[in-house]
Design the sequence.
């Protein structure tokens, strides 16, 4: 340590004199007479004894300082804190700043040992004439006072924090002893460093580093003379001199510091004069602190990361402990969010769905990395804030689950159909298998009876479903059914073949759950048509399972957290599990590629450069919510466009962002946004093709068709459904009674899940008489009609003979009807 001029006896005698003087003044003011001078010797001795009995061990708690949330490139997203403080070593504080604070606060700092005798003498004189206790606090004493207050606040002891600021004799004496003790333990450099990191510089800036960044947008190591003088002038009364709110007062204090530095010979007068000519307002480059998510560069990312961090056990055993560590521990939180992807996604969303659109329609999008679960972006078309009266402003995070952002999620529409596709391929359905879309009349819809369900999760009452484009019926390939999103194919697929319960289980293993954390309900409406409410993040991660060849990964927003000392306190690696067979995933991907190809609902929006992609549209009942979820092997994105306020108003005959829409489907706005985001998100990435499925997955498995001849129609349909077939009823002319089940076509084996013709007698209809009959002698020999291809013998188990003269051709399944699905 540097030389100290005062000895302990000198200090103690002066303290004794201070006590005597203070006591004497108190008595005189009370109207009593006391020979103060005569009593001084005795009082001084007793004061020395009392002083020595005061505690001298001074301990401090770690300073509260801001934490930092960083993006994937190291940029700052937000700085959550209770106190905006960034602790730096003394060698990262400009020497001119050190000189300025010493000049104005404690010019003899390097000469005393905690107490300044000259200043203390001046305080004694002041106390003889004023009704207050005043002291010439050194930087060491100021540090003690501030540290005691900080420790009390950190401990939640408001009374102790208030006592640390009281202008009382006892506090002054205790503060003095702590200061002297501290000077014996720490060097002057350590004390100055601690003080500059602890002091308050106004406008919520604690410590010189945070103040430098706040007022000048530079580090404390870069401060020049004028900036250092301005900051040094603030600590005496930061509440009334901060330059943002009180520039004139700040300017006066700056000039006082400059004058003092000239008087002490620290700077040249010409340099000081030059700075005095510059208005404080011209010096400022204020950077608002990002302590709230409202000021963050990615507001809803900030909110999500904070809420996610508060769930992590490494931060503490209790919620209060985790919050304290997050807001006071100086943590550095490294996230996975890519700022370029985020900016691109926000731009493309707001281009089509402006923030605060007068229709109340909003959009949200989440970008994830398949195979790792890294969240690259999340955002929405609203301003972050709790101003309920401001349209387009909310703190509800539409992109994430309720625990992280208070959103209840949204119905996902036909994006739910992929889970029944996974189940169907696992059961052995081939990609080109012919399936049947049940016909219905008018707007009544196709009705499915409870007994058609293959498990206990089916409906207890008849279930009616319609197609978006009307009555589409007949046979079509499974590929075409998914490309056009035909409801009357997928409802019987789930009810009668793969089962509601098993489809629900497939959703769960692929990470799909409701936004409130509950599993999807075992209802056909939720597992097939998407009436369950989930978040865009959950849907994106679930779809990414297919992009990663069946590997589901939990969300990964944070990879590492370090404390203020740079020690790693938490790491996260991808947490993934193979939940779908790779070959099955390849088959599903092959089917969903059809959505993006000619005839599919996404055909108009291929990715740039011919990059392969797969996905699915989703539109809910009455056009309230719409989606597109899609992926490549490198990126998966879920885009939501709809009514986030849950008012359930249809998006029909509506103008959004200046564009008119008769109806808003998943392909209307969500799909174009998805395409633009995906193109940008793949910048710099080489195209990667999907793995191709094996022949076994493409063709599927064949199984025996049950013999249903002679059964009732209801029983025949039940037996076929149990075997994995969809019955397409075909009436044929037959000598059997009308309504009799004749058999099936094909009659032996067929692909599992395919549509088979269930041949039902329409009764015998004689053939029409020949037109312009030829002479008998010229007629060819008659045909006894063995029924092959006709009404009688069209399928296994039918009557051996057709009607006399041969029946009409028995028919295979009728041709496919019109297309249906999300647009």
Sequence:
């Amino acid at each position: 340590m540097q030389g100290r001029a005062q000895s302990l006896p000198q200090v103690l005698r002066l303290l004794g004199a201070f006590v005597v003087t203070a006591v004497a003044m108190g008595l005189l003011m009370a109207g009593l007479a006391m020979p103060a001078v005569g009593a001084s010797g005795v009082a001084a001795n007793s004061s020395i004894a009392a002083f020595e009995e005061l505690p001298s061990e001074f301990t401090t708690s770690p300073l509260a300082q801001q934490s930092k949330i960083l993006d994937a490139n190291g940029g700052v997203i937000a700085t959550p804190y209770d106190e905006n403080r960034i602790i730096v070593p003394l060698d990262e504080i400009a020497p001119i700043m050190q000189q300025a604070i010493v000049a104005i606060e404690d010019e003899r700092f390097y000469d005393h040992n905690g107490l300044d005798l000259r200043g203390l003498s001046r305080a004694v004189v002041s106390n003889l004439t004023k009704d207050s206790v005043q002291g010439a606090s050194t930087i060491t004493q100021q540090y003690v006072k501030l540290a005691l207050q900080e420790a009390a606040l950190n401990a939640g002891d408001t009374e102790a924090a208030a006592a640390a600021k009281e202008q009382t004799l006892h506090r002054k004496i205790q503060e003095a002893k702590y200061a002297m003790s501290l000077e014996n333990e720490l060097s002057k450099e350590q004390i100055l460093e601690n003080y500059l990191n602890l002091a308050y510089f106004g406008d919520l800036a604690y410590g010189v580093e945070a103040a430098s960044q706040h007022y000048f947008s530079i580090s404390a190591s870069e401060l020049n003379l004028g900036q250092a003088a301005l900051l040094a002038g603030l600590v005496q009364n930061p509440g009334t001199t901060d330059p943002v709110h009180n520039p004139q007062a700040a300017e006066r204090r700056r000039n006082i510091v400059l004058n003092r530095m000239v008087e002490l010979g620290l700077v040249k007068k010409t340099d000081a004069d030059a700075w005095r000519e510059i208005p404080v307002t011209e010096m400022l480059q204020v950077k608002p602190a990002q302590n709230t998510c409202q000021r963050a560069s990615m507001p809803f990312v900030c909110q999500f990361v904070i809420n996610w961090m508060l769930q992590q056990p490494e931060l503490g055993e209790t919620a209060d402990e985790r919050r304290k560590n997050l807001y006071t521990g100086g943590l550095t939180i490294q996230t996975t969010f890519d700022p370029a992807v985020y900016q691109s996604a926000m731009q493309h969303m707001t281009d089509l769905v402006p923030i605060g659109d007068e229709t109340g329609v909003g959009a949200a999008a989440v970008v994830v990395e398949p195979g790792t679960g890294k969240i690259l972006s999340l955002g929405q078309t609203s301003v972050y804030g709790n101003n309920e009266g401001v349209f387009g402003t909310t703190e509800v995070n539409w992109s994430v689950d309720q625990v992280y952002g208070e959103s209840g999620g949204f119905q996902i529409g036909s994006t739910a159909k992929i889970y029944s596709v996974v189940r169907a391929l696992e059961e052995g359905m081939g990609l080109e298998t012919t399936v049947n879309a049940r016909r219905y009349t008018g707007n009544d819809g196709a009705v499915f009876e409870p007994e058609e369900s293959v498990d206990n999760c089916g409906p207890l009452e008849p279930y009616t479903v319609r197609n978006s484009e009307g009555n589409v019926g007949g046979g079509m390939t499974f590929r075409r059914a998914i490309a056009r999103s035909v409801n009357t194919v997928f409802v019987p697929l789930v009810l009668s073949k793969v089962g509601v319960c098993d489809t629900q289980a497939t959703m769960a293993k692929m990470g799909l759950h409701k936004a409130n954390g509950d599993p999807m309900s075992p209802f056909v409406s939720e597992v097939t048509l998407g009436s369950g409410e989930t978040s865009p993040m959950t849907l994106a991660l679930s779809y990414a399972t297919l992009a990663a060849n069946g590997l589901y990964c939990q969300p990964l927003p944070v990879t590492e957290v370090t404390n203020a000392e740079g020690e790693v306190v938490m790491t996260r690696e991808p947490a993934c599990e193979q939940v779908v067979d790779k070959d099955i995933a390849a088959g599903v991907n092959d089917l969903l590629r059809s959505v993006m190809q000619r005839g599919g609902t996404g055909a108009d929006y291929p990715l740039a450069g011919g990059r392969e992609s797969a996905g699915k549209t989703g539109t809910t009942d009455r056009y309230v919510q719409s989606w597109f979820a899609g992926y490549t092997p490198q990126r998966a994105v879920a885009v939501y466009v709809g009514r986030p306020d849950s008012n359930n108003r249809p998006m029909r005959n509506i103008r959004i962002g200046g564009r008119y829409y008769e109806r808003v489907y998943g392909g209307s706005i969500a799909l174009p946004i998805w395409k633009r985001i995906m193109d940008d998100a793949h910048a710099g990435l080489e195209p990667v093709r999907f793995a191709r499925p094996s022949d076994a997955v493409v063709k599927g498995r064949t199984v025996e068709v049950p013999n249903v001849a002679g059964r009732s129609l209801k029983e025949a349909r039940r037996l076929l459904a149990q075997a994995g077939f969809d019955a397409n009823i075909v009436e044929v002319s037959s000598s059997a009674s009308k309504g009799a089940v004749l058999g099936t076509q094909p009659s032996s084996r067929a692909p599992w899940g395919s549509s088979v013709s269930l041949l039902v007698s329409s009764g015998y209809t004689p053939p029409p008489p020949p037109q312009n009959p030829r002479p008998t002698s010229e007629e060819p020999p008659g045909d006894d009609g063995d029924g092959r291809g006709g009404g009688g013998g069209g399928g296994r188990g039918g009557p051996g003979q057709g009607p006399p003269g041969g029946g009409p051709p028995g028919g295979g399944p009728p041709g496919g009807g019109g297309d249906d699905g999300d647009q």
